Amino acid sequence: IFKFLGAISVDLGQDRIKPYLPTILTPLYRELNSNYAEQDPTLKNLSQEIIELLKKLVGLEAFSLAFSSVQKQANQKRAMRKKQKALQTVANPDIAARRKLKRHKNKAETRKRKIESLRPMYKAKRHRSHALKDLAMVE
């Protein structure tokens, strides 16, 4: 997709690409700012190359305006998701409690796995199933 975006932008030229610049920059920006553990470095390099190509093609000023708008939009979306999550915690405390229990359970499992990798002879006790009944609220 990134190669396609680069080819289209070169094909359209400087004047015809400007209205589509934020649309093209959105996935490139998302790839550059992602911090996934299993991220492909070739995708990151490719997106950086295409951004440099676009910068040369449309000029620094037009590129900067489009890039800052994409950046602002991404930050607004991130803040909106964070706000929605906080509101959901207040509105639905039972769902939030279940999510918290699940998170703590996963953290304990991760800790056990880490201990087992550091000390192979030690075997931590584990629950047999990860069914919904394990996550149920206990009164």
From TrEMBL:
PANTHER family linked: SMALL SUBUNIT PROCESSOME COMPONENT 20 HOMOLOG
Where in this chain does the record put each U3 small nucleolar RNA-associated protein 20 C-terminal domain?
A: 1-116
InterPro entries associated with the record: SSU_processome_comp_20, UTP20_C
| Any one annotated GO CC term | 90S preribosome
Q: What is this protein called?
A: UTP20 protein
- Originating gene: Utp20
Q: Which Pfam families match?
A: UTP20_C
